[in-house]
Design goal:
about 70 residues; mainly beta; Ubiquitin-like (UB roll); five-stranded mixed β-sheet; 1 helix; about 35% strand; globular
Length: about 70
């Protein structure tokens, strides 16, 4: 059974009890190059693995892209 979350304004489904770290990896991003908010709260990178996503969470991810 999947849970529904919102990522950068778009609805998505994911596995229940997935960590933010695992979710970011599933999206194909390097967690070290991402800033994250969950439900309008900043999540420090050191907390990505402990932050478990729940039904109806609102996630905002900002990727850092090198270059100019």
């Amino acid at each position: 059974m999947k849970i529904g979350i919102t990522v950068n304004g778009a609805p998505r489904e994911t596995e229940p009890d997935i960590s933010l770290f695992e979710f970011i990896q599933q999206l194909g991003f390097d967690p070290m190059g991402v800033a994250a908010l969950v439900n309008d709260e900043i999540v420090e990178r050191s907390g990505f693995a402990e932050t478990l996503l729940k039904e109806n969470d609102v996630v905002e991810l900002i990727r850092f892209v090198p270059g100019g």
